[in-house]
Amino acid sequence: MAGSGTAHMRNNDEVVLEVRDLVVEFKVGGGRVVNAVSKISFDVCRGETLAVVGESGCGKTTLGKAVLQLPPPNSGDVVFEGTNLSKLPKELLRSARTAMQMVFQDPISSLDPRMTVRDLIEEPLWVWGRGDDDERAAKVRELLNNVGLDPELVLNRRSYEFSGGQCQRISIARSLALEPRMLICDEPVSALDVSIQAQILNLLQDMKDRYGLTMIFISHDLAVVKAVSNRIMVMYLGKICEVGDPEKIYATPAHHYTSALINSVPIPDPTRKRVTVPLQGEPPSPVAPPSGCRFRTRCPAASDKCAAEEPQLREVSPGQFVACHHPRV
Amino acid sequence: MMSISDMYVRFETPFGLLEAVRGVNLEIPAGASVGIVGESGSGKTVMSRAAMGLLSGSNVRREGKVVFNGRELTAMSKEEVRNQFGTGMAMIFQDPMTALNPVRRVGTQISESLRVRLGMDKKQAMQRSAELLSLVRIPDPEAMLRKFPYQLSGGMRQRVMIAIAISCNPELLFADEPTTALDVTVQAQILQLLSDLRRDLKMSMVLVTHDLGVVANHTDFVAVMYAGEIVEQASTTELFANMKMPYTRALLESIPNIEMKSGARLKVIEGRLPNPVDRPKGCGFVTRCTYAQQKCHDEHPPLVDAGNGHLYRCWYPLGHTIARKQ
């Protein structure tokens, strides 16, 4: 299996996380293998928010977890601040991972209902023996204040007493307890109500500024992604389709899949009916992905070349990279 | 087609009487698509279920009148209401996995209503089921008939649900968040499919959703619900052109828009829906509204007509001097 190229890698001093040729496969019995992530390379610079976008089943969540070595990828390197996580012994990996934290999609099931909010947020601190009792208590209060919850009202309550939005605030406070330098958010607002989504997205922006975080933001919602990211990576069936500057990608998507995704988002304006035909069909099975370009079975521009040869990422305009034989720009 | 008047739905709970729907009046014209929009807890699902006569239980108290095709649903016996399902009304639910029976094949589930309602025999029903599956654009319908729901993706399951719903040519289709559980590309396919089917089969449709983007493109009329009441109602073009309610505007602005600048800050509706057991006596939105005045705290605003059928429930609607001052 060939990768889709490394033309988009930046190799400068600002790169905090560098992922090379990452492969994650799952055995599903009968000797079959799900190709969840197939030789993906990317990098994230300090202070950047990289958005990973794609339909369900494209491997975006697996990718996020593989960066944290949950579980370790089948092959490939994850280099965080100069340390190759995939080669670290278990104990060192555990301590290296304190600098990277994850926020999950379902805020209610990711919090233990038997623990009080105080314990939930303090747990990472006492696991790592940070500070004494007083320092930890002060830290918990500070975190709760920062995520917009009143410590007096919430400290002794449990997660089931809160709404989804409040639980997501608690999750975010917990993930920030160890002062990570990188935050991986896996669909942090998909499970939330419309009016709450904006609150949590703004909170994540604030936390990013306050703690100087670098973020990977995983989402299927292109409108949400537009609001938060500085760089976008579009995935399809375990491969990268397009990477680059969001303003450019939204204005002139080069990959036919990116364009279809953007055209599928409903616009809240009845005078502007979308005329484009929505993307037909559904993604093929990742157990037997199509040869060459994996999107060719649904692509309006597919040719024989697409079946024979895997497209490599190349720069179509400054800061916009696409893996397609027949790009739109 | 259907008219709902003075509908109230209350649930008895250990915390007191919960008013989920408070005095809703709604007309669903024949052949039209009506969108019902609101946050979770606004009462939109309870309202549509009550309209279909699907709410029962010893803790439910229902008031008001629902007239469907000239007959009063609310006065019918359970048996008679049941006879309206399939040929009169049909419903599509949000989660296609839990709405389908996991241990029965797709073909059996579609042909069930055909046999019961239209009196087809097994062979006819299976044949018609295959036709319905191709109508909802499922490739290789014959093979699909023999599959179980767990073998299908979310989008395919929702297509099967739609096939079941339209199997007996209903006149009115209720779709409760039909695409919320689906991917954005599949959502676009399903909404297009529903719009096409509605046109071809001449159905009316009620589309319950939280997404104003979906409403903008797929409905003729919109009713915005908040805290159990309709707070704004108009034709879809009129609503988006001349929004009256601060709430509708706030809801629209809080949705991440694909056309906004990247990195731009989103507008937020602070606070939450009022407690449904203990509603404020004035306007339900008062605690979250940026334009709230003393009158909004004290008096409950009535639903007023701005002309051309545009109804709203606000003392100081957008465009009013108070709203302009801030």
Strand elements of chain B, count: 12
Class per helix and strand makeup of chain B: alpha/beta
Helix fraction of chain A, binned, reads: 25-40%
Structurally, the number of domains of chain B stands at 2
Order of strands across the main sheet of chain A: 6-7-8-3-9-10-12-11
Question: Average pLDDT value of chain B?
Answer: 89
Q: What's the CATH superfamily of the largest domain in chain B, by name? A: P-loop containing nucleotide triphosphate hydrolases
Strand element count of chain A:
12
The sequence of SSEs of chain A as H and E is: EEEHEEHEHHHHEHEHEEHHHEE
State which percent range the strand residues of chain A make up: 15-25%
Structural descriptors:
A: alpha/beta; 8-stranded mixed beta sheet; 4-stranded antiparallel beta sheet; 11 helices; about 30% helix; B: alpha/beta; 2 domains; 12 strands; about 20% strand
